[in-house]
Specification:
Pfam families: Nitroreductase. This is Nitroreductase. It is built from nine helices and four strands, in the order ααβααβαααβαβα. It has about 210 residues and is of the alpha+beta class. The chain has a single domain, classed as NADH Oxidase. It is globular, with a radius of gyration of 19 Å.
Length: about 210
């Protein structure tokens, strides 16, 4: 079987983590770089990512996550926080990054900047918030696929009070809102979910070639 497909067959949304098994610094750095290299619309990456390892903070976050054990038992908790607004200042900062990275005069990027401002910045704030959250989910997908390649377990989660996370992590003052989280570590032997067959649509049901 293809190694990529084998890895995706191996992964599942881990419900019980081995709290004694910790990620190596090398593996955590690989996961972080995979997130950093994720695709995003226009390449803007309108989100920030928080690696939560502090036990006391994770206890607080568990209280606003319906008491789910993954929050405290996984090696670390990764919080994807999307920007609540996208402004012309964000576009300007992105153009400066492109200019520096690709050695292009920033004035040569004015057309691209105008396109982003017209397509995104002028949108209503609630629609921009929805757009930024979608970009964070793309990064989550990259995290899950990379973790599977490394045989690291992960559980993407939406079962939490996002406002509670924002409060505990002080995100609102940073113009951020919790979009989605992922517990990352190693499965516990007693997690029965790992032995269940993966349930997905058949290829015939899912794919349509036109």
């Amino acid at each position: 079987m293809n190694h990529v497909i084998e890895s995706l067959q191996w992964r599942y949304a881990t419900k019980k983590f081995n709290s004694a098994a910790k990620l190596s610094d090398e593996h955590l750095d690989t996961l972080k770089e995979a997130i950093r290299l994720s695709a995003s619309s226009y390449g803007m990456q309108p989100y920030e990512v928080f690696i939560i390892q502090d036990p006391e903070i994770r206890k607080q976050l568990r209280e606003v996550s319906w008491g789910q054990s993954q929050i405290t038992d996984a090696s670390c908790l990764i919080v994807f926080a999307s920007k609540t607004d996208v402004t012309a200042s964000d576009t300007e900062a992105y153009m400066k990054n492109i200019s520096k990275t690709r050695n292009i005069p920033v004035e040569n990027l004015s057309g691209y900047a105008n396109m982003i401002n017209n397509a995104v910045v002028q949108l209503p704030t609630d629609i921009k918030g929805n757009w930024t959250a979608k970009q964070a989910y793309i990064a989550l997908g990259n995290l899950l696929a990379t973790a599977a390649q490394l045989r690291i377990d992960a559980c993407p989660m939406e079962g939490f009070d996002a406002d509670g996370y924002d409060r505990i992590l002080g995100l609102k003052a940073q113009g951020l809102h919790t979009a989605v989280i992922a517990a990352v570590g190693y499965r516990a032997p007693e997690d029965d979910m790992q032995h269940l067959p993966k349930v997905r649509k058949t290829a015939e049901e899912l794919f349509h070639t036109i």
